[in-house]
Amino acid sequence: xxxxxxxxxxxxxxxxxxxxxxxxxxxxxxxxxxxxxxxxxxxxxxxxxxxxxxxxxxxxxxxxxxxxxxxx
Length: 72
What we know:
The chain is mainly β. It is built from one helix and five strands, in the order βαββββ.
């Protein structure tokens, strides 16, 4: 299974003590996931365009974004 997560970068940082995954912000989850072995990270720079095509679907956007490919 491959999961692609796209996160728009934010300048704010929020630190929480949480017991469930749903208690963490998306940014916190992404920071943790990108440390893992089976995760490839791509930084999309500001105003850089990207296009992702898979299974007949297409996603277009511009940075800044973080793209994670999870293959575990």
